[in-house]
Amino acid sequence: MLIGVWLLSSSDIAPDPFGGWTPYFMKRAELERSVFYAIKPREMVNPGKIWVTPEKIYVVERYEGIHIIDNTNPASPFNTGFIVAPGCMDIAVKDGHLYLDNAVDLVAFNLVNGTVTERLKHYFPEPVSPTGRTYYGHSSEMILVGWKQTQKQSERL
């Protein structure tokens, strides 16, 4: 019996197949309602790709959305808002539209009126973990949106 208790208590040190990262999911209907303009800026925590236009700078917050920075005065840029877009890792801007990945979907977001104007479902593959691993076996109703760090590499050693 003592061995069984030891086995149960040691299960938290089993090898982590995703290298300290846990996938997170959304239902398809939730994903399709998840892109919107949040007026309040957010602090940059995990910045990614950057897109620069003459008046704005767009900075991806990995798996979360896009920071909007007013750059009309390049000597003093300031954060003016945030576009919530779960699963976002990449962006492009053209003709008043922001094109982004919303997990597996390609979305066109109108920068003038703050609405999604087009969505191409399942355009991209599901995101792999930051350690390069792929998650299989979840329900087809669920979309893998991103990865959250659950354990730092130094804690796994």
What would you say this structure looks like, in words?
It is a single chain. This protein is mainly β and about 160 residues long. The chain has a single domain, classed as Beta Barrel (Thrombin, subunit H). The chain contains 3 helices and 11 strands, in the order αβαββββββββββα. It has a 5-stranded antiparallel beta sheet, with no helix packed on it. The chain has a 4-stranded antiparallel beta sheet with strand order 7-8-9-10, with no helix packed on it. A hairpin with a 2-residue loop joins β7 and β8. The chain starts with a helix and ends with a helix. About 20% of the residues are buried. The N terminus is likely disordered.
How is the main sheet built?
5 strands, antiparallel
Looking across the biggest beta sheet, what order are the strands in?
A: 2-6-5-4-3
3D shape: globular
As for the number of domains, it is 1
Q: In CATH's first tier, which class applies?
A: Mainly Beta
- Count of DSSP-assigned helices: 3
How big is the Rg?
19 Å
Strand content: 35-45%
What is the terminal-to-terminal distance? 29 Å
SSE pattern: HEHEEEEEEEEEEH
Would you tell me which CATH topology applies? Thrombin, subunit H
Unreliable sequence segments? 1-15
Q: Compute the average pLDDT.
A: 85
Structural class based on helices, strands and sheet pairing: mainly beta
Number of strands: 11
Indicate the CATH architecture.
Answer: Beta Barrel
Helix content: 10-25%
